[in-house]
Amino acid sequence: MAASNVSTNISNSILDAVGNTPMLEIEGIYCKCEFLNPSGSIKARIAKYMIERAEEEGLLKPGDTIVEATSGNTGNALSMVAAVKGYGMLVVMPEGMSGERLAISRAFGADVLLTGQFHVNAALEKARELGRREGYFNPGQFENEWNVEENRTWLGPEILAQLPEGKVPDALVMGVGTGGTLVGVGQAFREVNPGVKLFAMEPSESKTLLCGEIGEHLIEGISDGFVPGIFERHEGLVDVTLTAESGEAVEEMRRLAKRYGLFVGPSSGANLVTARKVKEAHPELETVVTLLCDEGEKYIQEHFAEPAEVRVGAEELS
Ligand code: PMP
């Protein structure tokens, strides 16, 4: 087999492997494979970007500790960045998030503080308070415009460069956690197609954006229990807000693994289900883009631990 595409660049930092993820076309939808980033999610990008911006601005100094409230993936990503760069790391997260995410941050050497149940509100307060103390830096992903800036200048242009020659995006479909991806990538898309439609998605069990409702759901990483500052500031950019049910998100997640070998989390399932609905309802939207945000390994205990059918013995096969 030819190895002509093998990169010969040798780096001494895993952070150089963030980004440049593959694009797949699955059932007519362009899917950006962000789950293949180091630390297993889309959040590797904002973690690297926000920390390097903070270093440039002199907000982070050697010996400092990064503190961030997160439902998991940003904590994993910042923990990785802190490990590489030698900062302390304190992840503040609610109870009830997947155990793997906690374990991954711990594996990167971070301390984890658990506050509150399921939603991130209590964790947010705590991280903000600690961030004001000497020697701590709180990136504040839900408010920080660097989150949007990363998506506008890095992830967005990368997606545009990967679309087939001559194609521009007609629609972007994305679940809202901080809103950074939808807003920042959306801004990049608007530059090449001012008419691109931006579809926000949230769980139907927790319609916070649509009507202020906060509920428990299984689509970890989105709908954290409040309207994030980023989304509020840029709400005018979004065309439509849609919902996905936890059940259909999980079902689609399982199908993606079995049918396409894509081992991803429930928000990826929810994104693809919703993108398909958008394309069915609006056939004029030819080039529809969505994202596969994190890896299935983070949900083994929650969703994949007990396969319905395990063939233990070989008797029936002999
Ligand atoms: N899916 C997953 C798995 C996530 O971790 C996140 C980020 N919390 C999102 C989707 C939403 O991304 P954003 O914060 O950019 O809205």
TrEMBL record:
Co-factor(s): pyridoxal 5'-phosphate
Molecular functions per Gene Ontology: transferase activity, transferring alkyl or aryl (other than methyl) groups
InterPro entries, alphabetized: Cys_Synth/Cystath_Beta-Synth (IPR050214), P-phosphate_BS (IPR001216), TrpB-like_PALP (IPR001926), TrpB-like_PALP_sf (IPR036052)
Keyword field: Pyridoxal phosphate
PROSITE patterns assigned: CYS_SYNTHASE
Domain Tryptophan synthase beta chain-like PALP: 15-294
TM regions (residue ranges): none
SUPFAM superfamilies: Tryptophan synthase beta subunit-like PLP-dependent enzymes
Gene Ontology process terms (BP): cysteine biosynthetic process from serine
UniProt family annotation: Belongs to the cysteine synthase/cystathionine beta-synthase family.
Identification of the protein by name: Pyridoxal-phosphate dependent enzyme
Organism name: Rubrobacter marinus
